[in-house]
């Protein structure tokens, strides 16, 4: 790969370029790309991970916001004519436009400053995504994969696990990047459920009930849902109102949202 195009990482884009060849190979092995699959990479940078994937798939779509990186990417990957570069903001990108002839797979070293809202944006396309593999700040991966009762279990955990099976794969140290970030990173695998284990009748209501539930996470459900649910309704749901929100699983929150939706 050509190294003749220097590019200083831009703080406003949250850029940290992965350069550790061993880590890149390990990520590609986790993704296990196959020829003919439609893989979409968010923030390809200079193409370090891109090359490992497109050499297997032969075609690929990448979404890059930094226009100065695009010519570098094209030069570094000139041998791959079926690399489709979309100069766009992934936060506003319509990923369904790439799923016209089958589901897509999504990968990326996501900017830490927008990783959570970007994941929520991607979850809105979950039905058209086979799987997602992301490099994220380790704490974000821990929150995504947290289970009920864990300290980091919260709104992101519940909403991600409503849509997906979430698995933390391995940690990546700061020395694998240029410039090195101040924190550890981790690789996460998110596989959207083919059939949702529990179905919210109103997704906006589920989001609202989860947000309200965790607004004051050290308080009890009775306090957090005051004016929303009474003790009789908690009893009907077989949920103890003296619990704290991190004790509830995804199904509990869905049942709360469905009860409130049905009640109108």
From TrEMBL:
Subcellular location per the Swiss-Prot or TrEMBL entry? Cytoplasm
Q: Which SMART domains match?
A: rADc
Catalyses which reaction(s): adenosine(1518)/adenosine(1519) in 16S rRNA + 4 S-adenosyl-L-methionine = N(6)-dimethyladenosine(1518)/N(6)-dimethyladenosine(1519) in 16S rRNA + 4 S-adenosyl-L-homocysteine + 4 H(+)
Name the EC number(s).
2.1.1.182
A GO molecular function held by the record: 16S rRNA (adenine(1518)-N(6)/adenine(1519)-N(6))-dimethyltransferase activity
Query: Where in the numbering of this chain does the Ribosomal RNA adenine methylase transferase N-terminal domain appear?
Result: 23-194
Q: Gene3D superfamilies annotated for this entry? A: Ribosomal RNA adenine dimethylase-like, domain 2, Vaccinia Virus protein VP39
Which residues make up the binding site for S-adenosyl-L-methionine?
16, 18, 43, 64, 89, 109
* CDD domains hit by this protein: AdoMet_MTases
What domain of life is recorded for the organism?
Bacteria
Q: What keywords are annotated for this sequence in UniProt?
A: Cytoplasm, Methyltransferase, RNA-binding, rRNA processing, S-adenosyl-L-methionine, Transferase
Family in the record: Belongs to the class I-like SAM-binding methyltransferase superfamily. rRNA adenine N(6)-methyltransferase family. RsmA subfamily.
Instruction: State the function annotated in the UniProt record.
Output: Specifically dimethylates two adjacent adenosines (A1518 and A1519) in the loop of a conserved hairpin near the 3'-end of 16S rRNA in the 30S particle. May play a critical role in biogenesis of 30S subunits.
Which HAMAP family does the protein's record reference?
16SrRNA_methyltr_A (MF_00607)
Q: What is this protein called?
A: Ribosomal RNA small subunit methyltransferase A
Q: Which gene encodes it?
A: rsmA
